[in-house]
Amino acid sequence: MSLRKQDPKNPLFEDLVWSRPENKRAAGKLLIIGGQAGDFMNVSAAYSFSKEAGAGTIRLILPDSLKKIAGNIEDAEFALSTSSGSFAKAALATFFDNSDWADHVLLAGDFGKNSETTVILDGFLLRGIKPTTISQNALPSIGIKLEQLVNMPVNLVIERKVFQKIGTALGTHIPITYITSFDQTAKLIEDISSSTKASFVVVDEDQIWCARGGEVVVTRAKPPDLNALSAYCSVWLMQNPTKPLEALSTAIYESIN
User: Fold this and answer.
1) Total structural domains in the chain?
2) CB neighbours of residue 124 within 10 Å
3) DSSP label at 250?
4) Residue 254: per-residue pLDDT
5) In 38-110, which ranges are E strands?
6) SS3 of residue 129 by DSSP
7) Domain with 248 in it: what CATH number?
8) What is the pLDDT of residues 110-135, one digit of tens each?
9) Total H helices, total E strands in the chain
10) pTM for the full model?
11) Structural domain boundaries enclosing 51
């Protein structure tokens, strides 16, 4: 089994920590897309944590239903929204225009359950023009089936219950529950990551798993807020695009310390 353990107080890939970019220009351009009329808190948290994680430059794309709340954020740009306050179809052009600028994209927060929003999120992901991290809160607004999504070059930051749904969608019937053994959980994460194109960060009760291409790293620690974890993963992947597993492991370490 290709499993390594990371001490929560010592990064497994220490060289990544010491070789971080020293100026903003080299620290990457992160595009954060998210929000709807009923949820600014989660995407705002992701924005703040991305700054904390060391992103060089950030652009934040929000539906214009949030303009009164977020209009004073210097990095924010607003796209057209539906009558319910989520992204409208016309927002897709704004997504593409800004993703041309970005090195990495983070889909953060609750986008709502509007069909127009689902259409543009699916269209954006299917075009696959930039590496993208998807936070768990965004998943319900995506219409692409899980078994298709995990065969796209995305990074998923999710809880164990969602990973179990992915396993079920892929035909794996071994449940991940509170009584599933450590070795069984590690094997299932290894098997799923080795047969899919996605990267995974899976939050468990007292440990955080990350996996890519059948390689797995586990860190025994109380998991941070998902917004924080998603933001840190986005920034570290952006800055280390050729070392995804190392980047995710280090992002986990940084987010809990």
Assistant:
1) 1
2) 22
3) H
4) 97
5) 57-63, 76-79, 104-108
6) coil
7) 3.40.1190.20
8) 999 899 999 999 999 999 879 999 99
9) 10, 10
10) 0.96
11) 3-256
